[in-house]
Amino acid sequence: MENHMKSRRSFLKKGITGVAGLSLFPAACQKDRGAQEQGAREKKVVTRTLGKTGLTLPLVNMGVMNADNPNLVKVALDRGIVMLDTAHYYMYGRNEEMIGGVIKDYPRDAYVIATKARATTVDRHTRLETEDVQAETFESFIKKFELSLLRLGLTYVDILYLHSVKSKEDAMIEHIVGAMEKLKQDGKVRHVGLSTHGNEPEVIRAAADSGFYEVVLTSYNFLQAHREEVESAIAYAAGAGLGIVAMKTQAGVYWDRERSQRINMKAALKWVLQNENVHTTIPGFTTYDQLEEDLAVMEDPTLTPKDKEDLQLGMDLKFDGLYCQQCGACLEQCDRKVEIPTLMRSYMYLYGYRNLAAAKQTLQSLDMPAIPCERCNPCLVNCSRGFDIKNRMVDIARLKYVPQDFLV
Ligand code: SF4
Ligand code: SF4
Predict the structure, then answer these.
(1) Is 107 contained in some domain?
(2) I need a surface site. Which of 54, 347, 399, 407 has the fewest CB within 10 A?
């Protein structure tokens, strides 16, 4: 069985002894203390195995999507986080480049890299990306992945996900599956997976039945109205030997657009980890304080009475929150067929994560010249989370006018 944790421990140990000479303490004393501290940390970190991949990972890893600070990534690795999760299109490629700049200083077996590619076309002049599963070819998918490797400075990644899969048909597009298989055969990808944040139960079950995918990255959190269906699909896939990674664990981060009411992030993350079929999580922290919170959960995921109380607040729907379930219940209600769930995801990226680039990219992924809501009165949509859809749509539409150069 592979054990990145073992490699990580020896690397960290080297780091601790390496700085002993700079200390005011005698070197021997410092070394003993370092060993004790390291021993305590080793005892505390809880790990699970990512299904049949055999990867042993801590309960909490890093979703790097919103982070542009290489020092934060470095500190995360130095404090015991092992897996860095990125994607080909995050920050127009700069996210992978930033990670590449950090990991070049670490031994290859001290970290796990997961990246994602999706079936899209990119306009070479505007750099805008449009989801188009039919336009993506075997060759273009491989070329896209090769560029990810180049940015990361790697010869292989540990996990390649087919990104943002929404149906069982999209999970099994023949030439995309063929491209991923080829990359695996060539040793450029160790394990293949798919990611999903809409229609998750169908997609997770399709992955489990495929005999191809080894890992599923899925949205899973305490605010999901359909969480029981997601749980059942997760159990099915874990039972079939797939590794399960959870994302969107903190359900939009804030309860309100003004960011005055923050969700209890530790509690939300702990809630996910109560499900033992979830092997690890990738919360998207961007500050050192948030990193500390996540590290505390990594060591002890026990929910306290206060945690449960805080989460109940959301389950009682006292706030609308920023997290769109991606349930699709709105789609049939809008007679103009606006892709509301994708726009609401963009809204969460903007107000929950403060990630303008991701919000704009998500908005641009839609083949939609204009958002028609301004001229539509009244809005016919009754959102299952109680969102004021029209207001949010008009609000997020303004992002179209933010110049591209401002974001990259
Ligand atoms: S906007 Fe509301 S109804 Fe539509 S997918 Fe999101 S939560 Fe569901
Ligand atoms: S206002 Fe409501 S019904 Fe009208 S286009 Fe927008 S989402 Fe659809």
Answers:
(1) yes
(2) 54
233 alpha carbon – ligand 1 mean position (Å):
21
* Separation CA 84–CA 282 (nearest Å): 8
Last residue of a domain, one of 302, 322, 340: 302
Q: CA dihedral in degrees (208, 209, 213, 215; nearest 10)?
A: 0
Query: Who contacts 200 (Cβ-Cβ below 8 Å, separation ≥6)?
Result: 218, 219, 220, 226, 229, 230, 233, 326
Taking phi first (over 0 means left), then psi (-120 to 50 degrees means alpha), and beta for anything else, what does residue 217 get? beta
DSSP string, 260-306: -SB--HHHHHHHHHTSTT--EE-----SHHHHHHHHHHHH--PPPHH
Same domain, 297 and 335: no
Show the low-confidence residues of the chain (pLDDT under 70). 1-43, 119-135, 252-253, 256-260, 314-319, 367-369, 403-408
Residue 173: what residue type?
I
CATH number of the domain at 156, please. 3.20.20.100
Q: For residue 388, give its domain range.
A: 331-406
| Ligand 2 atom at shortest distance from the alpha carbon of 340 | 7
- Single out the residue in 302, 319, 350 at which a domain terminates: 302
Answer yes or no: do 165 and 206 share one domain: yes
Distance 336 CA to ligand 2 centre (A): 7
Residue of the CA atom closest to atom 4 of ligand 1:
330
Nearest ligand to the CA atom of 375 = 2
Is 253 found in the same domain as 392?
no
pLDDT in tens, 219-241: 999 888 888 999 999 999 999 99
Whether 281 and 247 have beta carbons less than 8 Å apart is answered as yes
Cis peptide before 378 (omega within 30 of 0): yes
Distance 386 CA to ligand 1 centre (A): 8
51: nearest Cα among 203, 298, 280, 244: 244
Q: Pocket residues for ligand 2 (CB within 6 Å)?
A: 334, 336, 338, 340, 372-373, 376, 379-381, 389-390, 393
Record the pTM: 0.79
How far apart CA 318 and CA 320 sit, in angstroms, is 7
Atom of ligand 1 lying closest to residue 341 CA: 5
